[in-house]
Amino acid sequence: MTSPVYLFDLASRQAQWLAVRQSTISGNIANANTPGFRARDVEPFTDVLDKTKLAMVATSAQHIGFDARHVEGTKVKKSDTWDTVYSGNSVSLEQELTKSGEVARQHSLNTSVVKSFHRMLMSAVRTGS
Question: Where along the chain do its domains lie?
């Protein structure tokens, strides 16, 4: 019996998260001159992923394992490290553009992984026929 492949579901969830984050960043940029506006961001994708029921599965005992006990995490703090301007607005265009670049890179990586996995599956299907 074969088990389902969750990579596509995971990639879809990350793509949705990236779209929400990009929309939030765009809203921050659009309100860069609004007095009293506080910059927003979404929770990190790792937090979203921790709430899902997806788990890594090894199909062979020889696969490399992952032991979460050896990973040290840090608590993500709200990014208030950038200056607040005289109007009370906390939007930093430089920070928002940096975040936008991060989203673009993550989206590109997501797309590349999905394309590669799709090619691998299609290759396996062709050779298995």
Answer: 7-128
